[in-house]
Design a protein that fits this description.
alpha+beta, Beta-Lactamase, 5 domains, seven-stranded antiparallel sheet, six-stranded antiparallel sheet, 20 helices, flat, Diguanylate cyclase (GGDEF)-like protein
């Protein structure tokens, strides 16, 4: 009774001490947790600001690049169409101004003169774009003061060239004061806003935002006079921006605290600043902190519940100790049953007597052995247990056991008592007596005949693969379970150091993919992921093949290559193994591409053929929800050209027609020769119907201007246009309706443009001969 009371008191003291330690641990944990969360949230806020800043930079560069490309496209169009009337040129300038948001369009003459679109002379600009145009250059200027209005502006400019001579140029002028909301941000649930500055602090663009503290032009002056940063801090910030550095700074204006991330915009000397109120970032910090604390409290409750279970378990310790004896007896019986039903043979070896007795039946059931085999080390071959050529291995392992050493497994060939080509794996573990001597040893004899057969077959497959890889650019094999590289050779150089494998990691995959073309990099790196290959192996897939582009070291030319991954089973461990090799297939791939190109193109004009254009237009219409159009074009009087001048001259006209179409439309528009003298053009994502009519009229005009030997006009063209989805959302419907419009144009006298569905108000563009 006293012993039981003493046990209860000790048990209670143990529980109280444990509870005190747990509470102390919880306090330290929560304190450390709050510190770590605060540090983590600071880093997360900075990283998120950097991401939002990158988005703002991308938005600015994308918009400015779009505007610059529109200016270059307009200049090229003016260069290719010198016969445009003054009225047509004015429309082109107005479209450019409206599309890009320019305040003004300026014209530059070849001698450096500056004019309005109405050809009124202007003072020489100081922005540098006039000189750039005269040198045949295009680009975007930095901010400068307009010589006309005195406002701060910057310009996009491009020359108009014919041949190698510069005949003038155009420039789009943007006013800095009007550049609001070109830079947009969506970070922190639209709680952040951005500025674009020059390195001297001049504000070029900014986001209109309710929380913005400053809407002026001199940001550094604002920081010096209206914030707590001070003159020295602002000067240091300005020096960093002059050195093109990026970073974070904080300031307080009144009661408003802001966090600012700044980085170069890679445009002139401009910088993008992304600003977020401290209250916004602090809300994220508190929200995540509360969420983490809630999860911690849940874990604490779970821990206390587990502690209660442990206390109850302590109270039953004595019963568990008693029950453990019964469990040990049960496990002993289970072990005996396991040995009895084992696929291998278990035996006992006594070094003192040099005798062997089987605990479980031999692996080969038809073989009869005595209960005890004596002089086993010297008569192993004579007894038929081991082949004569492996007798020394047999003696060695028994000798090491007698010396108290534990040898590793040894493979031996079966003796005459077994069938031919039988192999075993022999393992022995010493059992010591109380004096430390080896009283006996427990051993296993496992039949590995089938395993050896698999290994030989695997070795033969390895030889076959070695022959296959003799021309491989690279090869490697990976144990997908251990994620270990077993072999790796690139350009004939072995990557394994000292013949030892290394971890199959993301770093290894990046090294293998460092010469892969950027467009193919993610796809090939994804193919090489161990988890992906394991999933394919377990679903029964045994080979994967990918085509990609890569360069050789020291070369900048990309070659087509294939990466083939075979998924195998390693014979010894049974683990899935990935065996991969890369081959150079550049020549055969390019031949296939050339064949594919020739199957898609009309051999005379190089345009898409009829079969291919139908497929491409149908596919485009499936993904199209904006305005599109199908244009049918048919040459008038083409048969007379063949009859009068011959088919060779007719073919030349068709080629000229193809060049006219290619020059009049965008590079991504679909253009095809539909048969004979009939052509088709499909335009998608067009802003309005007038855009299509403008392009079609340009084609009609250029075809009508074609002459033979400079003496006479030789051909004209009739054009029918149908718009999608208004006139149809399939190729068949659009073709039918555009053909009806074409028939209408032919019926009205040819050399005209007609639109489907507007018969009463048909827009027929006629021109006198």
């Amino acid at each position: 009774m006293k012993k039981e009371n003493s046990f209860s008191r000790n048990h209670l003291r143990t529980v109280i001490l444990l509870v005190i330690l747990v509470l102390a641990f919880i306090y330290l944990f929560l304190y450390d947790f709050s510190k770590r969360v605060d540090h983590l949230m600071t880093n997360m806020t900075t990283e998120h600001l950097a991401d939002v800043n990158d988005q703002s930079q991308t938005a600015v560069k994308t918009e400015l690049t779009r505007v610059f490309e529109e200016v270059c496209y307009t200049a090229d169009f003016l260069a290719e169409t010198p016969e445009l009337t003054e009225e047509a040129c004015q429309r082109v300038y107005e479209q450019l101004k409206e599309k890009c948001g320019f305040a003004n369009i300026r014209l530059v003459s070849a001698d450096g003169g500056l004019y309005t679109v109405g050809h009124e002379a202007l003072p020489q600009s100081v922005g540098g774009y006039v000189e750039g145009i005269c040198r045949g250059e295009s680009g975007m200027t930095d901010v400068f003061l307009s010589s006309v209005t005195g406002q701060e502006v910057f310009a996009f400019y491009a020359p108009v060239t014919r041949g190698k001579s510069v005949e003038g140029g155009i420039a789009g002028i943007m006013i800095v004061d009007q550049m609001v909301d070109m830079v947009t941000t969506n970070g922190f649930n639209s709680g952040s806003y951005s500025y674009v500055l020059k390195s001297d602090g001049t504000v070029i663009m900014q986001t209109s935002h309710a929380d913005s503290l400053y809407n002026g032009r001199e940001y550094f002056s604002f920081l010096r006079s209206d914030t707590d940063m001070g003159v020295e801090a602002v000067s240091e910030l300005q020096k960093k921006m002059e050195r093109k550095e990026k970073g974070v700074f904080l300031f307080t204006a009144g009661n408003e605290k802001r966090i600012v991330y700044y980085a170069p915009a890679e445009i002139n000397d401009w910088f993008v600043l992304t600003v977020v109120p401290y209250t916004v970032s602090n809300w994220y910090r508190e929200h995540i902190g509360k969420t983490a604390l809630y999860l911690t409290m849940k874990m604490l409750v779970l821990f206390l519940a587990q502690l209660a279970v442990i206390i109850l378990w302590f109270r039953k310790t004595r019963n568990i100790i008693l029950d453990s004896k019964e469990a040990l007896e049960l496990e002993k019986k289970k072990l005996e049953l396991a040995i009895l039903h084992s696929t291998g043979t278990t035996f006992e070896y006594v070094p003192k007597d040099d005798s062997l007795s089987f605990i479980s039946p031999p692996v080969v059931k038809e073989v009869e052995f005595p209960a005890v085999l004596n002089q086993i080390s010297t008569k192993g071959a004579a007894l038929g247990l081991v082949a004569a050529e492996d007798l020394e291995k047999w003696k060695m392992i028994l000798k090491r056991i007698a010396e108290g050493k534990e040898p590793g497994p040894v493979e031996v060939a079966g003796g005459t008592s077994f069938s031919e080509d039988t192999y075993f794996r022999l393992s022995l573990t010493p059992v010591r007596s109380g004096k430390g001597e080896v009283a006996k040893a427990i051993g296993t004899l496992e039949d590995i005949t089938e395993e050896r057969r698999i290994r030989r077959r695997f070795a033969q497959e390895e030889q076959y693969r070695a022959a296959l890889l003799s021309e491989a650019v690279a090869m490697w094999s990976v144990d997908l379970v251990r994620q270990q590289v077993m072999a790796c050779t690139i350009h004939g150089k072995d990557w394994l150091e000292g013949g030892k494998g290394f971890l199959y990691s993301g770093r290894f995959i990046e090294k293998m993919c460092r010469y892969v073309h950027p467009a193919d990099h993610d796809r090939i790196a994804g193919q090489m992921q161990a988890n992906r290959m394991l999933a394919a192996y377990y679903t029964g897939e045994r080979e994967q093949k990918e085509l990609f582009r890569a360069t050789y070291p020291g070369s900048e030319d990309y070659k087509w290559m294939t990466c083939t991954v075979s998924l195998l089973t390693e014979p010894v461990s049974g683990n899935p193994v990935a065996f991969a090799y890369v081959r150079d297939v550049d020549e055969e791939t390019k031949r296939k591409m050339e064949l594919m190109y020739s199957s898609e193109r009309d051999p005379l004009t190089g345009l898409y053929n009829r079969r291919n254009i139908e497929e491409k237009v149908e596919q485009a219409l499936k993904n199209e929800d904006s305005l599109s159009c199908l244009i049918m074009l048919d040459l008038d009087g083409f048969k007379e050209i063949n009859d009068k001048y011959g088919h060779q001259e007719g073919d030349a006209v068709l080629k000229k027609m193809a060049r006219i179409l290619s020059g009049a439309f965008r590079s991504n528009d679909l253009i095809a020769r539909f048969g004979g003298d009939e052509f088709i053009v499909f335009l998608d994502h067009i802003p309005n119907c007038e855009c299509a009519s403008f392009r079609a009229e340009e084609v009609r005009r250029q075809v009508y201007a074609l002459t033979l030997n400079g003496e006479e006009r030789i051909v004209s063209i009739s054009i029918g246009i149908a718009f999608g989805p208004r006139d149809g959302d399939t190729f068949e419907l659009l073709y039918k309706h555009a053909d009806e419009a074409l028939y209408m144009a032919k019926g009205r006298g040819k050399n005209q443009i007609a639109f489907y569905g507007e018969e009463e108000e048909m827009m027929i563009l006629e021109r006198p001969d």
